Amino acid sequence: MALLFLSEADPVDQWREALLAEMPDLDFRVWPDQIGNPLDIDVALVWLPPPGELSKFANLKAILSLGAGVDALIEDCTLPNLPLARMVDPSLTRMMADYVLAAALRHHRNLDFFEHEQRSGRWTFKFPKLVGDRTVGILGLGVLGSAAAACLRDFGFKVQGWSRSEKILDGVACFHGSTQLHSFLSNTEILICLLPLTQDTEGVLNTSLFAALPSNACLINVGRGRHLVEGDLIEALENGQLAAATLDVFETEPLPKASRLWNEPRVLVTPHVASYCDPRSAAAGVVENIRLVRAGRPPNHLADRARGY
Ligand code: NDP
Ligand code: OXD
Predict the structure, then answer these.
(1) Which of 91, 173, 271, 275 is most buried, with most CB under 10 Å away?
(2) By the 8 A CB rule, do 190 and 301 touch?
(3) What is the pTM of this model?
(4) According to the model, what pLDDT value does residue 216 have?
């Protein structure tokens, strides 16, 4: 029995050290050079495996994602039909809440506007608003969305959120389903996307959604790049429907050099850094899942492939 670690983005040495601290007898193999006998591999811990790669392990029993979003795995039609667990971890949740708070505050205090005015050498006074007079709306009230909502609420924003099923969150106005989307949007001044990418949510950030927001709203997209129709964003920024955007995720990553978004004056581009799970924090949960799988039980935080997240 061995764990396969497959990620070109995560720090393999830190993961090895953190997992071995939790499970000293773990046989830790690394893709692509230290796989050993592929028949030994029973659990894979992965981020963006090349399509077809996981079907090479005949004794694989479960796939554990290093990311919260499992869209790329679910889209891979060669993925073995095995239990698939999402990453749910306090460090990932905390970092996302920090990023969302920072980005929301930057828009709330007009720092995006002042950065723009400074570049043009203009001293333009704009009245600040009290935090309690600002409404922030979050698309997606799952693990990350509900933690971000609590953080923004505790900071003093008016917070509302939208999800697929009905939710009750203390101090957060909750909306659900397509019939309540427009009521949710109608007074959302800063919109945050924390949805998973599915067939239902792809392209959700589009002209008709922007038109339902108050004019001069701001957008923060930390979900996935394909939630956003980039052309619709640029048009909404040009016609004043949106005042500014913070984008952390893109249809193609790294964002291609030729993308217009690099030079859009009211767009802040960050390189998919909103959140990251620290191996020291996440290793215990991964080891618990390895133990569950080896005991013949489903891992925690199973993704629902039919639902898409
Ligand atoms: P969860 O699965 O816990 O939550 C997803 C939320 O979205 C749920 O509230 C769900 O509703 C809602 N939702 C899903 N589909 C719909 C729909 N069609 N209509 C309305 N609501 C819907 O996911 P997480 O919170 O853990 O993660 C969210 C996403 O964040 C990830 O999928 C990933 O794309 C992104 N992410 C980005 C990172 C970054 O660094 N930029 C880092 C980590 C994650 P319900 O509660 O009813 O199921
Ligand atoms: C994730 C991500 O899904 O980092 O965890 O995007």
Answers:
(1) 275
(2) no
(3) 0.98
(4) 97
